[in-house]
Structures are given as structure tokens and as C-alpha cells.
Amino acid sequence: MAKPFVTVDLDKPRKLRYGMNQLIQLEEALGVSVSEIDKVPMGLKELRVFLWVGLSWEDPDLTLEKAGELADEAEDLTYIAEKIGEALAASFGGEGKKKKGPAAKSGTGKKS
């Protein structure tokens, strides 16, 4: 059975999912093992990486820069961080349970 996904509203509804390949991609991009991902200091760069990797299973041509542009389409960065947290929890069997996900530390991310 495929890992569940979480819908995130960006330019359009998109599906965030962290299957085996995405978790390995996170390890490589962040330089930590999957067991240490929750200890990664979360800034804007890291949030963009989580978003990029989580969307890449459905859109393999997605770039980091495009993921950053998609983040601009969200109501705020906290929303994205919450959706990433939900998708990560679902990938580890916590579907329906909200676990602490990555949180952006740089402002509210609200559009002006």
C-alpha cells in the first residue's frame, strides 16, 4: 500500500507525501538520518526542502526554486509547516494524528 498523502493548497491542491524515496532524499538534502529529522533547525531553506521533497513524488520536474514560489501561494508558512508535519506523521503510520512538524522560525509568512 502506498504511503498516504496530505493535500496542501498552494497554486492548486497538491499532494504531500513522504515515501521511502522522499525520506532518503530528505536525508541527503539535510545531511541527517531520518531519525534526526525532527532535530533539524527549521529555517526557510529547510522548509522549502521539506516542501520540495514532499511534492516531488507527484511532480518529478519540480525544482527547489519552484517549490519556494509555490510556498508564496499558501496563506502563510505556518500552514505549510503544519501540512508537512501531517504528511510526515502519516508516513510513519500516524495517519490522522497530528505530530509536531517542522515550523518556520522567520516571521509569520503572511502575504502583505
Set down the secondary structure blueprint.
Blueprint lengths: L5 E4 L3 E4 L3 H11 L13 H13 L7 H8 L5 H15 L21
Strand line-up of the largest beta sheet: 1-2
How large is the radius of gyration? Answer: 13 Å
Structural class: mainly alpha
Approximate strand percentage:
5-15%
Summarize the structure.
With 112 residues, this protein is mainly α. The protein has one domain. The protein contains four helices and two strands; from the N terminus they run E-E-H-H-H-H.
Task: Describe the 3D structure.
The protein is mainly alpha-helical and about 110 residues long. The chain has one domain. It has four helices and two strands. Strands 1-2 form a two-stranded antiparallel ribbon. A hairpin with a 3-residue loop joins strand 1 and strand 2. Helix 1 packs antiparallel against helix 2, helix 2 packs across helix 3 and helix 2 crosses helix 4. The chain is globular, with a radius of gyration of 13 Å.
Overview features:
mainly alpha, 112 residues, disordered C terminus, two-stranded antiparallel ribbon, 42% helix
